[in-house]
Amino acid sequence: MAEWVQNLMDSMGYVGILLLMILENVFPPIPSELIMPSAGFAASRGDLNIVMVIVVGTAGSVLGTLPLYYLGRVFGEDKLVKWADKYGKWLTLSGKDIKKADDWFDQHGTKAVLFGRLVPGIRSLLSLPAGMSEMPLPKFLIYSAIGSAIWASILAGAGYLLGENYDRVEQYVGPAGYVVLGMLAVAAVVWFVRRKKAQS
Known about the structure:
Elements: H1 2-12, H2 14-26, H3 32-44, H4 50-87, H5 95-116, H6 127-132, H7 137-162, H8 168-199
């Protein structure tokens, strides 16, 4: 994958970075932890400009959030509430739970979008609840852009500084993402157990 990413950037330059970052949000198996450090390495060689790498990477990341955001808008809270009331008992999920989750996102959505963009594994998925809770598009884009710019700067900067060893960035960022995902999984299990106890 690393060689394919590098070849695409070598042949398409900034357009390649833009396309890869859009795809990374729609198809998470293409990781930004590989794309942006590779672009940073290309900038360290003088092939690209580091500022343009960050700007284009951020733009691609933000554009890539839109498909899932609009998917959330299309289905919306009402349809999900109806679905949960009809089928959600198998997941111990009710329409009331969907409403509570939506209310939480209404209160904390900006922070979730901003900081969630820095977390590998869930960064692209946050667009779905943002759309579902009907977060205004301008607000969603602004917070996505800020979070994405920070993330792109960290990764591209690391690739720029590490040079030929840019592929090590993924080794350090990857485990951090697994820790966060593990914490989320534990929180989900705790919620599930408490809900079961409350129902019994």
